[in-house]
């Protein structure tokens, strides 16, 4: 029977991305072997009153069907038990052999190597972003973050929904439900910087937000809403920011109609038109030599060519277009406008 395209795509994703942990056939086979030996040993011990050593020995030679003689003549019940044990042993051996063949023939080893590689990659991530839900919005967010060099982990229940771009971007994918604590933990939520709850239903995003906030109280959570009342519910659940995609898109479209030049400028600054102009956030290190100096004393504009459009203090207060006398504070954030090289030069000075 021919493999359908969706099946082939699913197999491809399972070989390259992290799949939620499941019981492996070889683990099942090993469990069956130990189970048969355990039951066989117990059975011979109490049915035939053998010593533990003799019971174990009798179990092994029965399961392995090597044909050695009995320790002592078996009772009728013992013979029935031995017959069942031999059948169980043959069945277990057949299952184990089949599982091993499947492991080799179907490329299961490659899948396991891929899972291990992705697990190690996620374990080494810190201050990364977790995107829950790979619909149209989620895919765009993952692509933007990955192309900007940010560390991203995606969570999606259906790997087909992820599409081929995720493989190209080398973004780890965890196939599973974002409601489950184990799935969120496998994405490194305790070490993550941001979680984006972008599932299509508000109720799902509320539940994901509650779970994520419980696992990491310091996490920044951005959630999507489609409902007018969804914002308040998501805020109460623990979301820091709630976005309504259609409202944002509608507002941008209206701004495009009313202020086309301003919209073009913002598109360029956001890096969507391939220009060198960018708007960037730059955090001032507490040990920076410029801490305590005014903007005039630091001479950042003349040295780098970058424009400081705003300051965000550590208490969250935002100061737009700060004056020359404004003092630079450690831990504050600068909103910087300029060419990429200028912004990088300013960041290096700090």
Task: Give the topology.
Layout: H1 5-16, H2 25-47, H3 52-64, H4 76-105, H5 108-123, E1 129-132, H6 136-147, E2 152-156, H7 159-162, H8 165-169, E3 173-175, H9 181-186, E4 194-197, H10 202-215, E5 220-224, H11 230-237, E6 241-243, H12 245-258, H13 260-269, E7 277-283, H14 295-298, H15 300-304, E8 307-312, E9 318-320, E10 333-339, H16 340-349
Parallel strand pairs: 1-2, 1-4, 2-3, 4-5, 5-6
Antiparallel strand pairs: 7-10, 8-9, 8-10
Describe the protein:
The structure is a single chain. The chain is of the alpha/beta class and 350 residues long. It has helices spanning 5-16, 25-47, 52-64, 76-105, 108-123, 136-147, 159-162, 165-169, 181-186, 202-215, 230-237, 245-258, 260-269, 295-298, 300-304, 340-349; strands at residues 129-132, 152-156, 173-175, 194-197, 220-224, 241-243, 277-283, 307-312, 318-320, 333-339. Strands 3-2-1-4-5-6 form a six-stranded parallel sheet, sandwiched between helices. A hairpin with a 5-residue loop joins strand 8 and strand 9 (318-320). The radius of gyration is 30 Å and the shape is elongated. The model is unreliable at 1-6 and 12-19 (pLDDT under 50).
Summary tags:
about 350 residues; alpha/beta; Rossmann fold; Alpha-Beta Plaits; 6-stranded parallel sheet; 4-stranded antiparallel sheet
Give a nutshell description of this structure:
The chain is an alpha/beta fold.
Our measurement of the CA-to-CA distance between the termini, rounded to an integer number of angstroms, reads: 63 Å
Strand order of the largest sheet: 3-2-1-4-5-6
CATH C-level class of the largest domain: Alpha Beta
Largest sheet entry: 6 strands, parallel
Name the poorly predicted regions.
Answer: 1-6, 12-19
CATH architecture of the largest domain: 3-Layer(aba) Sandwich
CATH superfamily label of the largest domain = NAD(P)-binding Rossmann-like Domain
Estimated structural class: alpha/beta
Instruction: Write down the overall mean pLDDT.
Output: 81
- What is the percent of helical residues? 40-55%
Q: What radius of gyration results from the CA coordinates? A: 30 Å
Please tell me the total number of domains.
Answer: 3
Q: What is the CATH topology assignment of the largest domain?
A: Rossmann fold
Q: Report the β-strand fraction as a percent range.
A: 5-15%
Q: What is the H-and-E element order?
A: HHHHHEHEHHEHEHEHEHHEHHEEEH
Helix segment tally: 16
The shape, in one word, is elongated
SS elements, strand count: 10
